[in-house]
Amino acid sequence: MVMSYVWVFLLALSLFCGLLNDAPDLGRAAMAGAARAVELGLGLAGSLVLWSGFGTLLERSGLQRGLARLLSPLLGRLFPTARRDPEAMGALCGNVTANLLGLGSAATPLGIRAVCRMQALSRTETATDEMCRLIVMNTASIQLLPTTVAALRGQLGAEAPFDILPAVWLTSALSVTAGLTAAAVLRRWWA
Amino acid sequence: MTGLLIPALLLGVSALALGRRVDVYSALLDGGRSGLELVKSILPSLVMLLTAVELLRVSGAADALTRLLAPLSTVLGIPAETLPLLLIRPLSGSAALAVGADLMAAHGPDSPVGRTAAILLGSTETTFYTVSVYFSAAGIRKTRYAVPAALLADLTAFLAASLTARWL
After folding, report:
1. Is A36 at the interface with chain B, CB within 8 A?
2. Using 50, 70 and 90 to split pLDDT, how confident is the model at B87?
3. Can you give the pTM of this predicted structure?
């Protein structure tokens, strides 16, 4: 629903500015934009298919589960209540590792299962601190291989599409840290 | 370096999976099909938003917005052109992809603006979508501080992206 307002706002703003600027040919611009989107989307298709295939391979090879086991002691510290419940902890570790490996389609169902299980344990309609922590870790997106963006860069002629990796890692690390710190501070104001 | 990293990663994981008797090629094909679904699902949204973006540019609205936001961007030390991306990123993933692609195409994927856009896209998620999907599925009504904390993380990512775009 929000996007409907954004859409109407963008169109109204364009028309208004177009009238102020001697009415350039906006009809032509609309067609050009739409055509460019298809070019871009189809250009991305190859990379998206390749990396989705790689993602499924990571799942079936057991590498994702291995990484989840590796991370579970660390995550146990952030989620002391969930740690005592194998089902919640399993879903939670799966969610975080799926995000790390860029398996978006696997991460969401696991994250939902983790939050549902946490809710079943807390038996309230109010988000617990650990749920908020999980949300922040998901929205801050810690991803080792940002393949969609790399595909986009490649499509648009970047010299080395993956050379943004260190910058993405550092940026993600900073934003997750900021989010978790904010959560630790804000919880005092929300009883 | 990164030119060899990707094929090495593909080979490493494939060989390891084959060693574990996984049907590597079928896994790639099955996953690839879901990638095709992904293309199908984001394409309509890319079309709508790139149409809107093109209208904004040709009408002069994009220039006006950039001028309007210029003081804010000077305070934060980030390129003014990337500010629309900050606004749309938490709302819609494919809209952010469209705006980011437009920035990279207009300024060049290796320019400071293009790199900032790419780093931001790679290191953030669609915050409002994630919050609503997770909490509504679990029947949580009071989300407490989840949204402000997540938005603060997004803002941090934005500031960090413009810095790392220049230094890394």
Report:
1. yes
2. confident
3. 0.88
Residue A174 contacts residue B164 (beta carbons within 8 Å): no
Please, are residues B13 and A84 in contact by the beta-carbon 8 Å criterion? no
Q: What is the pLDDT of residues A147-157, one digit of tens each?
A: 899 999 999 99
Q: Would you state the pLDDT for residue B2?
A: 63
Nearest-CB residue to B39 (from A30, A48, A162): A48
Give the alpha-carbon dihedral of B109, B111, B112, B115, to 10 degrees: 20
Task: Provide the ipTM.
Answer: 0.88
Band (B146; pLDDT cuts 50, 70, 90): very high
A37:B144 CB<8 A: no
Cα torsion B80, A149, A141, A98 to 10°: value is: 180
Which of B23, B58, B151, B159 best tests the A interface by mutation, with the highest count of A CBs <10 A? B58
Contact B51 A186 (CB under 8 A): no
pLDDT band at A186, cuts 50/70/90? very high
Kindly state whether B21 is in contact with chain A, defined as any CB-CB distance less than 8 angstroms.
Answer: no
Q: Give the number of other CB atoms < 10 A from CB of residue A137.
A: 25
Rounded distance between C-alpha atoms, residue B35 and residue A49, angstroms: 4
Whether residue B153 and residue A143 make contact (CB cut-off 8 A), yes or no, is: no
Q: Classify the C-alpha dihedral B81-B84-B87-B93 as positive or negative.
A: negative
Q: Are A101 and A145 in contact (CB under 8 A)?
A: yes
Q: List, in order, residues 6 or more apart from B61 with CB less than 8 Å away.
A: A13, A14, A16, A17, A18, B55
Burial class (CB in 10 A: 0-12, 13-18, 19+), A8: exposed
What average pLDDT does the segment B142-150 reach? 94
Question: What are A149-182's pLDDT values in tens digits?
Answer: 999 999 999 999 999 999 999 999 999 999 999 9
